[in-house]
Amino acid sequence: MLLGSQLRRLREARGITREAAGYSIRASESKISRMELGRVSFKTRDVEDLLTLYGITGEAERESLLSLAREANVAGWWHSYTDVLPSWFPTYVGLEGAASLIRVYEVQFVHGLLQTEEYARAVVRRGMKGASPDDIERRVALRLERQKHLFAQGAPEFHIVLDEAALRRPYGDRAVMRGQLQHLIDVSQRPNVRLQVMPFSFGGHSGESGAFTVLSFPDADLSDVVYLEQLTSALYLDKREDVAQYEQALKELQQDSPGPDESRDLLRGLLQLS
Fold first, then answer.
1. For 56-72, what is each residue's pLDDT tens digit?
2. Fewest CB within a 10 Å sphere: which of 53, 60, 138, 233?
């Protein structure tokens, strides 16, 4: 994504259309678009030809961008799990790992980054009916591996609004749900986590369209990305006007929900009732 955004910036600075850029590397306009969005791998020759077209002749700048191209083609750790993942999800895992700020609204269940192992296993079993025990365990292992990023040094900021429905819908037995609620109470006290609960008592709210995630990145050249998961696919939105609407919805959800302290009290109350 970083390389793609740099290439887009260079192309636009020279006033070159995507069609013309595609012609220069024997490719289509749509391929240039996918390259600039970071959705395809990069051939070194293509990047070299584009840099020449864009007037980048300095050895240091060319090598910096070509180095990015080589890095972009290195498979991430999560690619070893692609056999048990839907085709659209590895992209999300990569974006999640690169984000410096992750903002979420979740309504169906507790977000994967905050799930206990037992709760995650119950969720995966429900979502992968008919899967082998080994496949289920590999999916759970991936989820736990993703969580390490949230608790590591230099971890991203994680802001989440959980609908009360996600807390009351049981996955697993009573002990699993109690363990999950206690985990949420504990993790909500971490300095990089801001957890709020949208209670039933509030009524209708700005999250009416369903769950979504907004990912922000440390590099200023990278636009925010909205992730929307569907039954058989996922959407990755990065147009400014689309992202702005989801950011506004999340801002309203945060404003309308009780703050972190009050939300923690709500979690404690649910734990006592469970």
1. 999 988 998 888 888 88
2. 60
